[in-house]
Design a protein that fits this description.
alpha+beta
Length: 971
């Protein structure tokens, strides 16, 4: 039988080994067995004329055998030549690292699924235990419902949050969840960790800032102790360690970056060395520096990118304007928040047909429209939406978006950095941009009175709000003004004479824009898009960079005007690419899952309400219910529960529509400065205009992989911003311990209630032990805590009075104590026993006013928690409001994100014990308390860790995974 000969030598010039499937210069024909590989052609194209068996073929061979196979037996079955054996061993090793294969004690190869093993990602918990979130491809019979696998503390000893592992289902825990036993660590996720350096009993260690990493990192391995010296300054301890090129000095309590030199094992903690000292814990901006490193957010551009951007001219070149449609005559304007610096969209609207008569700008607009139409039709070949000859358009809407794709080309260093970041991150007082400032605030920003390159979505819309035609074309524009929401609202809705005089040349177009907005709003209502009521907040800072106060963010109709314009452009972009069969990343949002829908219906039934639509309700059914509950005093409670039934939006090449917006096709097109998926949509549109097909780079793994990456970077940014806001809120509240506040119950969990304070807009926990002298039980269906004897019931949106009793900045936790009395607007669910002393005053029978619940707690993965408050698994469009924080979502998505972001991390009252240095310490560390009374377990204002068991009977359930959270204005 003829075999191939492969080389496995090291390249003498590069010093690198040949790849896993390296092909020898020697060539002979392959055997029939090898050619029977169902993926033979793919492997041949990828690796050359003589590939090794594909991974799928290897798995098929093991499946057909039905038993574990030795290496020699596998080589015989797959006809592996002697010279190929080492390369084949490498391929098996790679499959083992990816969790596709494993070896038993006899070194035989087998598939994990056959051995009832599950691979997945580890989600850690502050109390030492964790969960394994199974991979989609690795879910065996034990995880048919994709249920997360509980990992006890002993199994987490050699694991850190984010690691990938292979576990065996060893049984079930006391709550009936599958419990796992670690078989193998597949991949380590943490090479560097940010934390606070401390010293106890002469041993230096780092307490990770990421509380999901429960193990401290020991510093200075035994063999290097001699190279470190300890100094004392005042009452603080200090350590200095010599390195090859410099000395790194740290002081006890400082924030440092530690590089792991040894990962944890079953018998030892992780060991590392300090590679960077970030500064003192309370330094201004330190919370952002910590978040950047804790969440591994790329925040420095590569040298290659800096060099590439330096070569780009400061102004638009004349040669770059060639081949573009000139729309500089159109009075396009940008409308953003007062603090915005990057303007990626401009709008223009005019009445057309009979509606345009009598307007002073009609002549200019008509001539400009005719010229644009002629060129656009020639450029696009009339490739717009199908137009009804029976319906005459009443408005022309032009949305011009910065042409980022002209400057950010595929395969360049700038493109690689933008892809790695995925999106801009908007922290309070600081932005981590997706693109360098020269582009984001300069060449790509549609600044006023300067020429800029743009991509235009030119739409014609009927008086009923139907988009009957749309064209896309590259253009050159000149923004006539940089307007703010406040200015536009003053001119259009408040009749401010001074502002109207200032904007007089633009008023006809702004009024047309407002008129179109009213029409689009009616079409939105008819379509059935969901719209929730919420309050957004803005942090105001003092000279030291700390919060001075938190105020509600006023959102007016000017915000909604821009939002509707952006929604229209996004829908046209997705339709355009779909009609031309061009692959793209849709922004998809599926309907609610059957189990969440069932829980919602059961909850609504208790209030005499019903959600229409049967087993498959539409967004219109939700919208109708929202209208029905608006007059009710308990509308906040009902709205919250509807939000929590919704899912999370993601980027995907498979179009599933957008449930919340009630769109069949939806994609992000309007923010390429701050979102990478928008940049890809621009490239795809340009490819269609050039009669080509755009595909993402093969090295990135295809559209599915890119979609998952962009979804991940969005969640990563959300988590980082919440972490920073949580720290700032705790710092803001630390001097107010003892003060009393009014607030609303924003979450009910088995271990207590979370309360959002009025005016202050900070959230904290009232532990179940502080609710009164009674045994309280969690009613999951009604999301309430009910007193066993008193019948007192605490529910979402109830009004309560609380006192701030504790703030733990280290752990981002705030504790409240409930003041005497029943929740305002709540009632007892049963009669008191006459023989039982009255434990609480009579109920106050006052209707609960509208809750001032705002965006708060950070999302926690389902696996990481013991609670199931089920804050909504929501989705993402583009936000309204200022561009201060996260790029992108609409009000619907931002609202749902805030509602489902309550994460409970399941801390166990009275059970947290210091495990530093491998044994109990009598010293109470400032970073981790060795003793915390059960009645005063704390929770962050924005981070709500689960408190696990309450006594011995109550435990928290898993929370839902968070969705989009953003304060950006547009969709």
């Amino acid at each position: 039988m003829e075999r191939i000969i492969l080389s496995n030598r090291i390249n003498k010039k590069s010093g690198q080994k040949t790849p896993e499937n390296a092909v020898s210069p020697y060539s002979v024909r392959l055997s029939a067995i090898r050619k029977a590989d169902p993926f033979f052609q793919r492997e041949t194209e990828k690796y050359g004329g003589h590939p090794l068996p594909s991974r799928e073929y290897i798995l098929q061979c093991l499946t057909d055998a039905g038993t574990p196979l030795s290496f020699d037996r596998l080589c015989d079955l797959l006809d592996i030549a002697e010279v190929e054996r080492e390369l084949f061993q490498r391929r098996l090793g790679a499959m083992r690292r990816d969790g596709q294969l494993m070896q038993n004690r006899r070194a035989d190869w087998l598939m994990p699924d056959k051995a009832h093993l599950v691979r997945g990602r580890v989600v850690g918990h502050a109390d030492g235990f964790g969960f394994l979130v199974p991979d989609d491809a690795g879910a065996g019979k034990a995880t048919d419902k994709k249920q997360d696998i509980f990992l006890p503390e002993k199994e987490m000893r050699e694991l850190l949050h984010g690691d990938r592992a292979l576990v065996r289902i060893a049984g079930t825990d006391r709550r009936g969840r599958p419990e796992g036993k670690l078989v193998e660590v597949l991949e380590r996720a943490n090479s560097r960790i940010v934390g606070r350096v401390m010293c106890e009993h002469g041993v230096w260690f780092v307490v990770p800032e990421n509380k999901r990493i429960a193990q401290d990192v020991l510093l200075v391995p035994a063999e290097e102790k001699a190279s470190a010296k300890v100094a004392t300054k005042s009452d603080s301890k200090a350590a200095t360690k010599s390195t090859r090129s410099r000395k790194i000095t740290w002081v006890d309590g400082q924030i440092v970056m530690v590089e792991l030199t040894e990962q944890p094992t079953r018998h030892s903690q992780p060991i590392g060395k300090v590679v960077e000292v970030l500064g003192n814990f309370a330094d201004p901006g330190m919370e952002i520096e910590v978040a950047l490193r804790s969440h591994e957010l790329p925040h420095e551009f590569s040298k290659a990118t800096i060099t590439q951007v330096a070569r780009i001219a400061d102004e638009v070149k004349e040669q770059d304007k060639k081949g573009r449609i000139d729309v500089r005559a159109l009075p396009l304007v940008t409308i953003d928040g007062e603090t915005a610096k990057d303007f990626d969209d401009a709008v223009y609207c005019e009445r057309i047909g009979g509606a345009a008569s009598g307007r002073s700008a009609a002549g200019l607009a008509k001539s400009a429209r005719a010229a644009v139409s002629r060129i656009a039709n020639k450029l696009t070949g009339k490739q717009g939406a199908k137009q009804s000859v029976q319906t005459e358009a009443a408005f022309r809407l032009v949305v011009a978006i910065a042409d980022v794709s002209h400057y950010v080309k595929p395969g360049t260093a700038l493109d690689e950095d933008a892809y790695e970041r995925g999106n801009s991150v908007y922290f309070p007082r600081r932005v981590i941009p997706m693109l360098p400032e020269k582009l984001s605030n300069g060449l790509c920003s549609l600044n006023p009175q300067v020429d800029r390159l743009c991509m235009v979505c030119d739409m014609q819309i009927t008086a009923q709000g139907e988009i009957v035609q749309h064209d896309f074309y590259p253009a050159v524009m000149n923004s006539k003004a940089r307007l703010t929401y406040t200015e536009v609202a003053a001119a259009l809705f408040e009749g401010d004479a001074a502002v109207r005089k200032k904007l007089k040349p633009l008023l006809p177009h702004l009024e047309a824009l407002d008129e179109l907005f009213r029409i689009l709003l009616k079409a939105r209502e008819a379509r059935g898009a969901i719209d929730f009521e919420t309050i957004e907040t803005v942090m105001q800072f003092d000279d030291q960079g700390k919060i001075s106060r938190i105020v509600p963010y006023e959102r007016n109709d000017a915000h909604r005007i821009i939002e509707e314009c952006m929604l229209a452009a996004n829908v046209c972009a997705s339709r355009y690419l779909h009609d031309h069969q061009q692959t793209l990343l849709y922004r998809i949002h599926a309907g609610p899952s059957s189990d969440r829908l069932q829980r919602l219906r059961e909850f609504l039934a208790g209030f005499g309400l019903q959600l229409g639509g049967g087993d498959a309700p539409t967004a219109k059914d939700f919208a109708k219910l929202m209208e029905q509950v608006k007059p009710r005093p308990d509308r906040q409670l009902l709205q919250t529960m509807m939000l929590r039934s919704l899912k999370q939006a993601v980027y995907s090449p498979d179009n599933a529509g957008h449930f919340g917006l009630a769109y069949e096709h939806y994609a992000h097109f309007t923010s390429p400065i701050r979102r990478y998926p928008d940049l890809l949509v621009h490239r795809a549109i340009k490819a269609v205009l050039a009669k080509k097909k755009y595909e993402v780079e093969e090295a990135r793994g295809g559209w599915d992989t890119v979609g998952m990456h962009c979804s991940m970077t969005e969640r990563r940014a959300d988590e980082a911003t919440r972490d920073v806001e949580s720290w700032l809120k705790c710092y803001f509240m630390q001097d107010r311990v003892g003060e009393e506040f009014e607030g609303s119950v924003s979450a009910v969990v088995p271990f207590g209630i979370f309360v959002t304070l009025d005016d202050v807009f900070v959230e904290g926990l009232v532990h179940i032990f502080d609710l009164g002298q009674d045994y309280f039980h969690f009613d999951e269906k009604q999301h309430a805590l009910v007193g066993e004897r008193s019948g007192v019931r605490y529910r979402l949106a109830d009004r309560v009075s609380v006192q701030l009793v504790r703030v733990d900045i280290d752990n981002r936790k705030i504790d409240f104590r409930l003041l005497e009395g029943l929740p305002k607007g709540a009632a007892s669910s049963g009669k008191r026993r006459k023989s039982t002393p009255q434990l609480m005053p009579k109920s106050i029978s006052k209707a609960a006013p509208k809750s001032s619940h705002v965006k708060s707690a950070p999302p926690v993965n389902d696996a990481s928690d013991e609670s199931d408050d089920s804050r909504p698994d929501w989705y993402g469009m583009q936000g309204m409001g200022d561009k201060k924080r996260q790029p992108g979502k609409s009000r619907i998505e931002a609202t749902a994100d805030s509602e489902r972001s309550t994460g409970k991390q399941g801390a166990k009252p009275g059970e947290q014990v210091s495990k530093r240095i491998g044994k109990k310490s009598s010293k109470v560390s400032s970073a981790k308390s060795t003793s915390k009374p059960p009645a005063k377990r704390s929770v962050a204002s924005a981070t709500k860790p689960s408190h696990g068991k309450v006594g011995k009977t109550q435990s928290a359930k898993k929370p839902a995974k968070a969705a989009d959270s953003t304060t950006r204005k547009k969709a």
